[in-house]
């Protein structure tokens, strides 16, 4: 039991949730190490949403709400940390939700789907086909979901699939607290923020955007600028870390 007045309560509670979800076969064991890397970068950025991350979240809302077929791709970590936030974003954006796993097993797909449904997510069902140009199981996706998507949100993604989705002509939005990762540098749009802070920001922005504001945000999208801004935030924080 983690005491709520512990100074690191949020972090410890997230770890406990992920460890429980790993025991339940929802999170891959590799997902625990991925989370640790994420936590390290979150320390560096100050465990807060920066201005450039907020701009990126608003731009993500613009891309999702103006897409013909927006899809949110959910993996084990995302389901364990943010099933409710995914439900809210689905409602606000009208996006389809597909479970898509790096460490893919049918059992994990069923468990993650059940968890998402418990939180009110409408999860796309169907027979997965090898549509993404990759040699491993990440090639598998649903023809009516990621297969047909023009915009895909892939939180906590691996770089290979991000590049393959872009090669298919799709716009890829990622949420990755590490601005140096291959995914962050390959995506159309990277939100350099922690998952559970970023998702509600996209949801809120979906409600407040008219079509002119959405077009402005999409027209001025510059992912290199967003990544540089995140790295600058980290540099500034490190310079003053012990002040
Ligand atoms: O559930 P599966 O089988 O699909 O596997 C999921 C993992 C996460 C294991 C898989 O996609 C993977 O190996 O991912 P990577 O390549 O480790 O990439 C994850 C990225 O997300 C890294 O750059 C982490 O720094 C970042 N990250 C981890 N936790 C968070 C995060 N970014 C934002 N918020 C987080 N909570």
From TrEMBL:
Superkingdom: Archaea
Reactions performed catalytically: (R)-4-phosphopantoate + beta-alanine + ATP = (R)-4'-phosphopantothenate + AMP + diphosphate + H(+)
Lineage of source species: Archaea, Methanobacteriati, Methanobacteriota, Stenosarchaea group, Methanomicrobia
Residues engaged in binding ATP: 15, 37, 176-178, 182-183
Keywords assigned: ATP-binding, Coenzyme A biosynthesis, Ligase, Nucleotide-binding
Pfam families: PPS_PS (PF02006)
Pathway assigned in UniProt: Cofactor biosynthesis; coenzyme A biosynthesis
InterPro entries cross-referenced by the UniProt entry: PPS/PS, PPS/PS_sf
UniProt keyword annotation of Lipid metabolism present: no
Naturally occurring in which organism (per UniProt): Methanoculleus frigidifontis
Subunit structure: Homodimer.
NCBIfam families: phpantohe_syn_Arch, PRK13761.1
Record keyword Ligase present: yes
Protein family (similarity comment): Belongs to the archaeal phosphopantothenate synthetase family.
PANTHER family: 4-PHOSPHOPANTOATE--BETA-ALANINE LIGASE
Enzyme class: ligase
Protein name, UniProt field: 4-phosphopantoate--beta-alanine ligase
Function recorded in the entry: Catalyzes the condensation of (R)-4-phosphopantoate and beta-alanine to 4'-phosphopantothenate in the CoA biosynthesis pathway.
EC number: 6.3.2.36
């Amino acid at each position: 039991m983690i005491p709520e007045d512990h100074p690191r309560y949020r972090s410890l509670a997230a770890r406990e949730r992920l460890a429980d979800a790993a025991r339940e076969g929802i999170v891959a064991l590799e997902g625990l190490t991925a989370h640790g890397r994420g936590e390290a970068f979150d320390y560096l950025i100050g465990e807060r949403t920066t201005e450039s991350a907020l701009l990126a979240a608003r731009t993500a809302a613009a891309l999702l709400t103006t897409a013909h077929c927006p899809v949110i791709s959910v993996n084990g970590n995302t389901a364990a940390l943010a099933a409710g936030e995914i439900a809210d974003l689905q409602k606000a954006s009208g996006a389809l939700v597909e479970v898509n796993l790096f460490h893919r097993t049918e059992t994990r797909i069923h468990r993650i789907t059940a968890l998402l449904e418990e939180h009110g997510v409408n999860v796309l069902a169907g027979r997965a086909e090898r549509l993404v140009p990759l040699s491993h199981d990440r090639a598998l996706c649903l023809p009516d979901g990621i297969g047909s998507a023009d915009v895909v949100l892939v939180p906590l993604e691996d770089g290979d699939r991000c590049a393959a989705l872009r090669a298919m002509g799709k716009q890829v939005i990622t949420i990755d607290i590490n601005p140096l990762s291959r995914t962050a540098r390959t995506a159309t749009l990277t939100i350099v923020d922690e998952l559970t802070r970023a998702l509600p920001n996209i949801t809120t922005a979906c409600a407040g955007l008219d079509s002119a504001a959405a077009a402005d945000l999409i027209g001025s999208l510059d992912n290199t600028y967003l990544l540089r801004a995140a790295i600058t935030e980290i540099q500034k924080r490190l310079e003053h870390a012990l002040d």
